[in-house]
Amino acid sequence: MTKRASAPRITKERVLQYLLITVGAVIYATGQLFFIKPLHIPMGGVAGISLVLNFLWSLPVGLMTLLLNLPLYVLGWRILGHGFFYKTVYATVVSSIWLDLMSGIIPGFSGEMLISALYGGIVMGAGLGLVFRAGGTSGGTDIVSKWLNQKRDLPVGTVNFCINLVVIVGSALIYRNPDSALYAILTSFLSGQMIDKLVYGMDVQRKAMIITNKPKEVSEAIITGLKRGVTGMDATGMYTGDPRTVLICVVHRHEAGTLKKLVLEQDEHAFLLLSNLNEVFGKGFKQVGN
Description:
Elements: H1 12-36, H2 45-57, H3 61-78, H4 82-102, H5 113-133, H6 141-152, H7 156-174, H8 179-200, E1 205-212, H9 215-226, E2 231-236, E3 243-252, H10 256-266, E4 271-277
Antiparallel strand pairs: 1-3, 1-4, 2-3
Helix pairs in contact: 1-4, 1-5, 2-3, 2-7, 3-4, 3-6, 5-8, 6-7, 7-8, 9-10
């Protein structure tokens, strides 16, 4: 006798995820209604096509978004998994309903197009970032971006920007305002930056690689002064052939100055490399799942 597959359990974490998606979808749709639609700033992907259809034939933006998303839902179901699919459909439905429900109710921005492009990109990016952080998308080319992020580890916002460029240029031509494409690119870029910040984290960490002849002294200074762990690796200087020790340490961005001071106090000839990290998981930083 085979057991029936149990339905997904309703947990506190799942409720919070869908609440976050709801908030993000509403913020995204509000930004589109208030800043983008009134001044006919092009958008990429399905959203941009839906706005063009509304411009040409007054078709509902939300309804068109849902219909155009149907083929992409197949990709979301077959490749990205059922959990991701449900969240994406939910985000798309919420934003689409909000778009059509609040159309004509939310007053459109009537100022300069540059201001509209700037704040539109920031607001919509913030909304999409919340949706992505909860494990969904707003549908459209976001599904493709999320898939590429999972398969190739490509930044979601950057991929979105590239995919949407063609739709933006075509929309600008239909609006008979080529200059609007330049504003749309700015909007898309800012939106992508906001998405990346919310998905990967706002606090950029610093990774230090330290090549030194005094590994014990430098390590003890870092451990004592910053309370950070240090990992040492044996290496060889290829020019001299002499043995070297490479120390690896991760610190918060605001600790980078103290780190440099501690290293140089112990070894003024140390070779120090600092680079940015978007996310760090482990003791003293993020915990897995956050």
